[in-house]
């Protein structure tokens, strides 16, 4: 008498069916993953192009300005004691804050597809060289028995130098830098709003940060690969 089969014919069909279903399910998941990667690549590529064109068109962006007037006192010792002279003057100045958009690259962009948030890390703002307005200089007082033309020019040059140094120090004060940084965040977000919409990327929230923001809040900004890394991974697979 023959032994009965370990797996009945109906059970064998069921197992085959399950195996086929499992393969189809794995294939579907694989296709979905491939499609998601393709969508991520295409979106990253589109974002890279939009950002590159937008930032190239606006190389340097002025994001703030501080103006004022400085009282400076200068002394010219002269060749002899009786030629000593001094001057007190008020010199208006202005210092602009600029954002260098040419430094930005795809490594500075991160795209959160789930939240539809584009995070852009921008370089810190930089103060320009102070502009001393000599045309609005006011001489408040001059002291000296005899002020030569050379001494007068020397007093003016020293006054401009002192005003430049004082204006540079004023421009580095935290309140002025922080105001310029706040303006930079808003300016970059507004700058990207229309190009992203025209590119058909829909409703995108732009978050702008400086490199030191990422250091202070690593979890907030380290949410995934940068656009540069996404594009590099795709090229490596081709």
Protein traits:
6 helices, 24% strand, five-stranded antiparallel β-sheet, 238 residues, 8 strands, three-stranded mixed β-sheet, alpha+beta
Give an overview in words.
- The chain is α+β, with helices and mostly antiparallel strands.
- It has 6 helices and 8 strands; from the N terminus they run αβββββββααβααα.
- Strands 1, 2, 5, 6 and 7 form a 5-stranded antiparallel sheet that branches. The protein has a 3-stranded mixed sheet with strand order 3-4-8.
Level of helix content? 40-55%
Q: Quick one: overall form? A: rod-shaped
Report how far apart the termini are.
61 Å
Strand content: 15-25%
Q: Largest beta sheet, briefly?
A: 5 strands, antiparallel
| Low-confidence runs | none
Please give the radius of gyration in angstroms: 33 Å
User: Count the strands?
Assistant: 8
What is the helix/strand order? HEEEEEEEHHEHHH
The helix/strand class is alpha+beta
On the 0 to 100 scale, the average pLDDT is 77
Instruction: Please tally the helical runs, counting DSSP H or I stretches of 4 or more residues.
Output: 6
């Amino acid at each position: 008498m023959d032994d009965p089969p370990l797996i009945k014919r109906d059970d064998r069909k069921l197992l085959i069916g399950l195996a086929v279903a499992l393969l189809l399910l794995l294939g579907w998941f694989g296709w979905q993953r491939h499609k998601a990667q393709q969508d991520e690549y295409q979106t990253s590529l589109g974002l890279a192009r939009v950002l590159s064109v937008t930032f190239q068109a606006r190389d340097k962006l002025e994001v703030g300005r501080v103006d004022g007037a400085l009282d400076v006192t200068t002394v010219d010792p002269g060749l002899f004691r009786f030629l000593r002279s001094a001057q007190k003057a008020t010199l208006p100045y202005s210092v602009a804050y600029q954002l260098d958009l040419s430094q930005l690259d795809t490594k500075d962009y991160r795209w959160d597809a789930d939240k539809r948030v584009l995070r852009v890390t921008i370089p810190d703002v930089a103060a320009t060289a102070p502009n001393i307005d000599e045309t609005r200089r006011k001489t408040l007082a001059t002291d000296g028995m005899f002020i030569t033309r050379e001494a007068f020019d020397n007093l003016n040059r020293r006054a401009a130098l002192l005003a430049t140094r004082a204006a540079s120090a004023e421009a580095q004060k935290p309140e002025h830098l922080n105001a310029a940084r706040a303006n930079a965040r808003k300016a970059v977000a507004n700058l990207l709003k229309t190009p992203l919409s025209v590119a058909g990327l829909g409703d995108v929230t732009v978050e702008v940060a400086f490199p030191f923001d990422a250091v202070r809040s690593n979890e907030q900004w380290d949410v995934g690969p940068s656009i540069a890394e996404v594009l590099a991974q795709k090229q490596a697979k081709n």
